[in-house]
Amino acid sequence: MKFSISWLKYLKQFRGEKILSQALRMFRLHSIPFSTLLGNMFNVMELHQAKFTFPIVASVASKNLGLTREILRRGHEVAVHGFKHVNYAYITERQQDDDVGKALDTFKALGIQVYGFRAPYNVYTEDTPKLVEKYGFLWDIGIGYNPKYRSGTSPFRVQIDDHESSFVCIPLNRLSDDFMIDIQGFSSRQMETKLKHVIKGASEKGGVFMFDLHPIRMGQPKYVNVLNSVVEYGTALNGWFPTVTEAVNYWSKHGKWKHDAPFCCLLTGDIDNFSFFDYIQRLF
Ligand SMILES: [Zn+2]
Predict the structure, then answer these.
(1) How far apart are CA 48 and CA 75, in angstroms?
(2) How far is the CA of 204 from the centre of ligand 1 (A)?
(3) Three-state DSSP state, 234
(4) pLDDT score for 1
(5) Taking burial as the number of CB atoms within 10 A of a residue's CB, which of 50, 102, 106, 256 is the most buried?
């Protein structure tokens, strides 16, 4: 605790108020152990037989192997969220290549199979999709956050030089937990209403919908109830809530969703840090 407070003082002095307020927010959120946050989410998902996909920063996964394995043991999916949580817009293609390659080597060394990728901060340069293809990922779930794809309802491929990408992309809805809570200041009731509204639309329009709901917020008691209500609502409308790999494989083979579900809802949540210590380390 003493250590953390001295870092916070350092942050304020050298990195300014904005980063300090973000650090304080993270400090509060991490006061509940990550194992509890994930456990809360797993319980909700098991109640509705729904699955979650967690893009994890590889360097963070390797330091928290027990929790990473627990995700798989409970039937959910792990994907690549970079080796370090760096903004790809600020590094060269070579450095991006190193980051993705190192992340894959790390998961391989840990014996964890990964099929998909989401870049840190959902930031992609022109070079990033080429790397996603080069490293043989089956799918990418960050490109779809670009406003030109965001409100789509079908899996899609992007153009890379003279061909379509070998990997599949999924539109990513704007309603992430950080957008709703930190930016819009929504109450949990408002979040529930907004998310249900999207699900209702999905059940009418059909297709695939994806949310980025980080466990650091959604696993908190206050928000896990929102998750429960939303998944309960979606399953009552016969929506299918699989892992991303399950959805992509099924769609590629059959061109529709399992059990002829009217829509597919992909719940994803990036894990950038498992503890406040991981978060602090990332800042320096
Ligand atoms: Zn992230």
Answers:
(1) 13
(2) 31
(3) helix
(4) 44
(5) 50
**What pLDDT does 194 receive?**
96
CA of 15 to the centre of ligand 1 (A): 20
Phi/psi for 23 (5° steps) reads -65, -40
Q: How far is the CA of 254 from the centre of ligand 1 (A)?
A: 32
> Ligand 1 center to residue 137 CA distance, Å?
18
182-227 pLDDT, tens digit per residue, is 899 999 999 999 999 999 999 999 999 999 999 999 999 999 999 9
pLDDT at 23: 86
Residue 156's nearest CA partner among 127, 129, 194 is 129
Q: Determine the distance separating the centroid of ligand 1 and the alpha carbon of 121, expressed in angstroms.
A: 5
Q: How many other CB atoms sit within 10 Å of the CB of residue 127? A: 15
CATH level 3 topology of 32-282: TIM Barrel (3.20.20)
pLDDT, block means (10 residues), the chain with 284 residues:
56 68 86 94 97 97 95 98 95 97 98 97 96 98 96 95 97 95 94 96 94 96 96 97 98 94 97 87 73
Domain locations along the chain:
1-31, 32-282
Cα–Cα distance measured from residue 84 to residue 120, given in angstroms and rounded to the nearest whole number: 8
For residue 56, how far is its CA from the centre of ligand 1 (angstroms)? 8
Q: How deeply is 234 buried, as exposed, middle or buried, from its count of CB atoms within 10 A (0-12, 13-18, 19+)? A: buried
Q: Are 209 and 199 in contact (CB under 8 A)?
A: yes
Cα(10) to ligand 1 centroid in Å equals 23
Convert 172-202 into a string of H (helix), E (strand) and C (coil): CCCCCHHHHHHHCCCCHHHHHHHHHHHHHHH
Q: How far is the CA of 236 from the centre of ligand 1 (A)?
A: 31
